[in-house]
Amino acid sequence: MRCIIHLDMDAFFASVEQLDNPELRGKPVIVGGAPNERGVVSTCSYEARRFGVRSAMPLTEAYRRCPQGIFVRGRGWRYAEISEAVLVIMSAFSPLLEPVSIDEAFLDVTHSFKLFGPGPDIARTIQRRVKDELGLSCSLGVAPNKFLAKLASDLKKPAGLVVITEENAKATLAPLPIEKIWGVGPKTAEQLKKIGFATIGDIQRADISLLERRLGVHGRDLWCLAHGQDERPVANSDEVKSVGHEHTFDVDIADLEAVKSTLLALAAKVGRRLRRKGLKCKVVHLKLRYHDFTTYTRQRSLGQSTNLDHEIYNAAVELLTAHFDGRPVRLIGVSVNQLSALGESVEQLNLLAPPPERQRKLAKVLDSIKEKHGEKSITYGKVKEYEE
Amino acid sequence: MKVSVNKDDLTFATQTVTRILTSKTSGASAGIRLTAEDGTLTLMANDLEIAMACQISAEVITVGAIVIPGKLLGEAVRRFPGQEVDLFVQEGRQVLSLRSGFSELDLIGMAPTYFPELPDILDFSRLKVSQSLLKSMLRQVSFAISTDDMRPILTGMLCECRDNSLRMVAADGFRVASRKEDIGIECPDGFRVVVPGRAVNEMARLLTDNEGTAEVTVGRNYILVKINDTTIISKLLEGNYINVDQYLPTKFTTHVEVKPKALLDALERAAVVAKDGLAGTVRLYFSDGLLKIRAQSAEHGTHYEEWAVDMQGESLEILFNIRVLIDVLKSVETGDIKLSFTGTLGPCVGKNAAQEDKYWSLAMPVRLS
User: Fold this and answer.
1) ipTM of the complex
2) Residue from A304, A317, A339, A351 whose CB has the most chain B CBs within 10 Å, to mutate
């Protein structure tokens, strides 16, 4: 019998905004953009939910329902940072960690009982640590498989902790609407309702061959899930293999210097992301697309792994100048791979190229300014010069 | 063309010149030119960066020339049954017929018309150096030639001739090596050129420890080295080589004298667990006349040993990439090596009492980041 924990942050983006800005606490916070913009709500606080605001709702509609709402634009990097911190807490209990999105993850603790006690205790510890160390609330589900764990974490939001066991699985599932089953979207739900299924219990009682006739292979999966059976393993295959950014110009440009300035902005983004994740890269790729859509990708290996903006930029520029033929450029991109974690790397010192201490210090300062004032608060002069 | 040659000679010549052909070369320069004249058969490969010609004695019945795809000839010749090989090209046809014993092979070739000619070497100085000396110099220096094309000039070896001394230097930044030798003859103009690593490696392969001499001709853009019956002509690298002497430290904290073989063996033992790559690091700790060596990797295990060394100065803990340190130790030819350290993060200089100021090498440590 496996033991899987699913963690889901409560109103994640909105809670982070309330955490960082005490004035927002207890107020309806809507993350997504200004009320007159074309976007949608990405998250809203529980206070806003009382007004009927929901995720994925157009911002204009959210404003209609909750004009006193505080609309904020998201700060992706900040959410990513906290998301990482949550994952670090979880990974203390088992190496089998599978992040699903920025605010949810699975953890397989089947083999962690001896060290940390039974699954529900581990879940409680994680919940308490997230609250104490990060100041945020999350909901957890503990169950014998991923489907049930995810379902459980959703049952008593916010700050819930629900345990589903093999024994009570069927009974817990029975009264729930069929939409709660993984993979049942509006279309399948409609089909099922037509033949008289409204709750998961209805499916549990159904004949498996009937479902197979109606829904094909999917019918069998549905029947298994309705009975609380799900064999999918927790897979931590989401190891970062490469980091990259690209930019499509509004107007194709043939000015090499202008392309270079964009390249610097992209390289800086890549460097920043590597440093945030505590990684270094060994290989730099350049992607160059001309106005006629002919696309070239070139790569070069660095002598030494790096996460510094200019070392990435210099390699990319070298590739660019070697291959640029004067045609107007439509798109330019930089990506890096062969990543290694900082702690596990040794740096071979070079007599002829002293360690780039100044650049390291610069990166540190730039990073701390960006942490405090946002990603766009500071950039290189060369980037600014051509930005218009 | 009609000639008769010894099979082993032909095999050697073919293998020697074929080595410079890479997958990048194409067209006529991807072939080997065979030229028969004056009692010799000359095989030549030329990829425009580097050319190699090898001359073997032959019984020439009719003179002539043909170009044969490089790899084909090597594979064919090696497997011939007899001791003699007859080569024949019919007038006006581009087919090379090889006959040896009961075996006969016809290889389709090309006319030699488009085969690139060797460059003329202008403004040259020429000197003769003993092969064993040249071989020893290359062995002590060539390991430090860089393979990273970020700084192209460092992918070559500096050759400098002034007054009557010849000096060679290579530096990839992690390692530096310098060797100087009195060659006994006055080189009137002197030169300072950078020879590509590829050409250096080919030279090192051809040089022998025997008494023969090698003839070195240095021109404005090319170097030509004649070793026995083989000639290597290489383009020189353009640009100014760094002045390595300015990087050579003069103040040291710790001096240690060891037998290179003893330390080498210890490092090879450490390398058993600390494989190349990230984990290929060894930790040396010198203190109170004792050297402690430690290496480990999560994958393979740990290594530890300690023994007495002759040391002066402060105690020191320093980390090296094992391969970097091994290369430096291997470049010491005879006698003990004196390692002089400048601190945990500074260069370590290796010298050899037997060679006084003629030789030094330098290794940079690593640090955990």
Assistant:
1) 0.82
2) A351
